[in-house]
Structure formats: structure tokens, C-alpha cells
Amino acid sequence: MDLELDDEKARLSGKETITYTNNSPDVLKYLWVQLDQNVRARDSKSPLIEGSGVRPATQVSSFATDYMSEGFDGGFKIEAVTDENGKPLQHMINRTMMRVEMPTPLASGAKFSFSIKWWYNINDHVNGRGRSGYEYFAEDDNRAYVIAQFYPRMAVYNDVEGWQNSQFWGRDEFALPFGNFEVNITVPADHILDGTGKLMNRKDVFSKDMMKRYEAAKKSYDKPVVIVTQAEVEKLEKSKSKDKKTWKLYAENVRDFGFATSRRFIWDMMAVKIGDKDVMAVSMYPKEGNPLWEQWSTKAVASTLKSYSRMTFDYPYHKAISVHAKNQGMEYPMICWNYGRPDKDGNYSDRVKFGMMSVIIHEVGHNFFPMIVNSDERQWTWMDEGLNTFVQYVAEQDFGKWYPDALSPGQSSYPSRRGPAANITRYMGGDQNYIAPIMTKGLNTYQFGNNAYGKPGTALNILRETVMGEELFDYAFREYANRWMFKHPTPEDFFRTMEDASAMDLDWFRRGWFYTTDYVDIAVKDVKKYYVTATPNKEGTEMARRFGMDTKDGVYFVEEGSEEDKPGMKDEDIMKNSPTLKQYVMDNFTPAERATMKAPKYFYSVTFEKPGGLVMPIIVEYTYADGTSKTETYPAQIWRLNDKEVSKSLASNKEIVKITVDPKLETADVDTSNNSWPQETQESEFDKFKNKTKN
To answer: pLDDT value at position 539?
Structure first.
């Protein structure tokens, strides 16, 4: 690609040559190319799919945009589509997709080269929203550009669906094939630029001071080295160069390309050791990001690369860049844009600080999912956002351990917003009319953040910490990542790999969490206390006769307080009062074995029920009269024969005084008011939420 930025008009022009290799076994008649910028064209259908109504009051700016503006003149202006000899190729544009007809069908293993010449007006991503564009700084009449989805991009042809040419309506992100990129970007000579790929002409575009600082950064592993300082940037802001400079970037085996450029960018870097190689952690930010960005951005990048590499595979690229852009959170290979800005005096709250750190961790983490483990977010949003949200939680906790000075006073760990089971209960226990299964196409979900990020991220965290255990889960998860890196996995590929590498049947888990909107609600329905006796009772006698037992040789359970509970029936020592039974029980054991045998004094029947519908293990804490406690986890398979309730008999030499289900809130149980025996009477958070929404 040869690109040129017109900074005065905020316009990007380009000519690209695509060489497409048909790696499928099929013969292809035509090719599909994505034109994502067309979502902002004046004739775009995207605004028309959203319901709207007249609001009683609206802001002046919103009123002007909605009712008095012609709208932004966006979208690709395609000037030519030609073959390698410069001859026009027949093509058809359907909104955000362009079908290119080839002169002859493309056989398996064959290649086809064609070129596209185009331009488009760059959008203001602050006021008009969007995943890329520019932010305008009126005080010095400058822009900071974060540029992506900027070129006509090849669609994926895969072995499951064929062409993945689902239209882009503005929400669901992108499915892309891997390739090599050679990109030349011409911008004003005073701009600072970085993007996907290796900078091939560093000495041509760097000053001597920048080169010296860059060499120092390659040896700095504990703190960033500033390549372009704030003082230098403030000087550049005051004037605009009329000259041009071309930055040359080359990337291998990436699925996309993005870049950022401005004369307002401060630039810092540090090295991070990943496996046996060094990777550069990089940040670019306007002065408005300081002091927060100079303190934490590049360290967050470095920490993320280490955490994700530990959970998946060693990061294969040579750098990862975090770019500060207002209201942004978006990812591309080796580069991402992130929000989080102090006020004009440089002050910031914990919310701003941790929000900035979390979005950097999340967006840098997207290098792994889906930039390398290349799922189709337009169809399976959770495979991108949900898997990444899960690993983000792990990486956030790592960051808090590795950089404890980033935590605020009184914090012992990183305050993750998503991940812990208890954080998803309000969503899962909410109004079922506005909840969709995780497997729903992202465009069609009601609560996109909860559905695509929060619930699947939490589900995987529960699978790791509660169901499988960290060691077993982490091995299987790494196997999935390594098995499907640089490929196009589907949901079945993920679950199949997790089962294959762990020897665990997870069908019950994926069915409930991913294909339904059921929620977790496991309750203690009933607790009955028994004593044992050698004296036959009515109910026990009937059972003994049914099974052909001699009633004189039986042990009988009597529920305390029942009609069968009569004076004189309770035996303090059943063995002493039943010599025949003693003979039957004890003859099979040695004296040493007899000495170690339990002598339970208390017997219970505990019934658990599952009004929430979602199958989960039953985690139970039994508290005894002497103040001690024991936690037992009954596997999810306990529900296999009765999906509504199940009972467990318990024999104990200590009296049980309390029973609590999910004592550490590990299962996302939405109603904890029914989790205890004796029953607690206070209103649960679930009931509070339900009553609040009713009112």
C-alpha cells in the first residue's frame, strides 16, 4: 500500500495491490473485499436499523446533528479496481462488501493480483464516534490520528462457512485472513508515526537524538525511555511543516494493519523479555494524557505481554503499542488505542486510573485474541471479547502483584470490574426479556457488554477456579491457544480442545452458560436430623421386608421430631445394644481397623434444590458446634438424574449447626438468601434488585 495523509483536509488516499492465494481446496469464481468505512457513507443503512423516537428534551449539539445536519460525508470513494496489467475489473459494491470478479476462476493453490485506488474523508472519532479517526485540538489547530479499517480488506474464505461476508453494521468487529503487509505512509514531516510492522527506514525518519534514545530503550527493562519528549512535542505544536516524510512499515503474518500519526505525540518505549527474545512495549500519547500515561501506559503494555504469554504462547511480534485517544478502546495487530485522561490540571481519580490501565490490558491482550487466535467476532463475539476479558482478569491481578505501587491505599489487589463470579449476578438474574444467550450474534444482543464480555469472561473464570482447577484449565487453555494460533477456530473447536486436553466432560457447562439464559441459584431446601437405632420402626420395617432383610439385623434411621421418634428408641451405642448387628459389622475388620473406625453420633439428610436452572457444582460449607468447619464440593454431575433437587446423607461425630452453599461466592449464585440453613431472613441482593426494578 502507498498511503498519503492530507492533514489540512483530514483525508486519506491510497493505492493498494493485493495478491491473494487460494489456500482452500475449492475453485473460487470471485473474491469478497470488505469496505468497512462505508458504514459512515451518507447512504449508509446502519442508522436506519436503530429504533428511535422523539425525546422530550435533547442537547443542542445532538439536536443539530440529528435534525439540521447533512451528515458526515464518509465512506470509500473507489476510483479504480484493476488487474495486474492495469485493466479494469468488474466489481459490485453492496454496502460494506465489494465483490471482485476474476477473469478466470481461481484454482486451489493459485494466486491472483489486483489493485484498488481509493480515498475517504477521515471522521472525528470524538464527536461522531467510531473505531478510528482523529481528535481535533482547537487550542493549537492540530489533530491526532488513529487510523484503522482504512483500506479495502480481504474477507475470509474458510472451511466452515465459505466466504465470511456478513455486512458490517457498526458493532460486530472483523474476520480477516493473514498476510504480509508492505506499507508506505506519507505524512507531514513533523509528524510522529508508528503502526503495525517493523519500521524499515528508521534512520531516515528518526533524528540523531531519537536514534540514541531508541538504542537506550532496547536495553531498558524496568522503566520506559522517552523517544520524543513533551517539550519537543509542545514545540512542534506551534508550527506546521509543509514538507512530507514517508514512513515504511513491513509486517509478516498479520491479519490487519493500523497506524497512528500526529505532531502532538509523546513517544516512549521499554524492552520486555518474552521467552528468549526482547519485545518493545511502546506508548504514544498527547500531553493531555500526562502525568498518567508517562507513569503507567508502557508498564501496563509490558505486564500484559508477560501475563498473556504465560497463559497462551510467547508473543510472536516484535512490539506492542498503546496509543492514547479520547473515548477509544480498539485493537489491531501490534497497536491499539485507549482512553483514560486526567483533567486539565493533571489530576485523576482511581476510576480514571484503573479504567486506563484496564483498557490498555484489554486492548493489548487482543493481540492474542483475535489477532492471532483468529476467531470471527461478527458471528461469535464472545470468542474474541469473552476470552480476552477472561485473560484480562488474570493479567490485571498479575499487574497488581508486579506493580503494587499502582494500587491505591487500602487496596490489596487490582480492583477488576469483570471476572469475579459475584460481579455478574445482577445481569444474569435480571429481566429475561432483555437477556440473550452468549451464542447470539453480537449485533442482536440487548446488553452487549454483559453478553459479549462480562458473562463469558466470568464463565471461563469460574471454569478455571471452581470447576476444573487452575492447573488443569491452564494446560487445556494453552493447548487451545497453541493449536489454533494463526487459524480460524469456531466455538466447537474451543470446547473440543478444552475437553480433549483435560479429560473433563464440559457439555453441561457450555450448554447452560453459552446456549441458555438460565442463572445460578442453588438453595438449601431442607435439612433433617436423624438418630440410628436397632429397634425396628414402621417405616424401616417395611423397607427391610421389601429388600428381604431380617428386621432383627437392621439399622434404622429415625427423623428427630417425627411420629417415629419415640422415647426409648434412641440408642447411645447401637453396637452395644445389638450384638447380632455388632457381629455382622465387626467380623470383617481387624482389631486395628476397628480402633480407627468412625463412630458418628449425628446423622443428617440435606436436600439441595436448583430454582435457577443452571447446572453447577454444589459447594457447601458445614459448620460444627465446636466452631470448626469443612467445605465439600459435589461435582455438577450430581444433578444428572434429577435436575430439580438432590439429597445427601451425612454422618458426623460433631453436630452441624450451619450449612452454607457457595460460601465464597464462586458460582455466580444470584440469590444468596436461600443458601443457608438455618434460613436467613434478610433480603438478598437479588431480591433487592428485583424489587427495585419492579418499582
So the answer is: 75
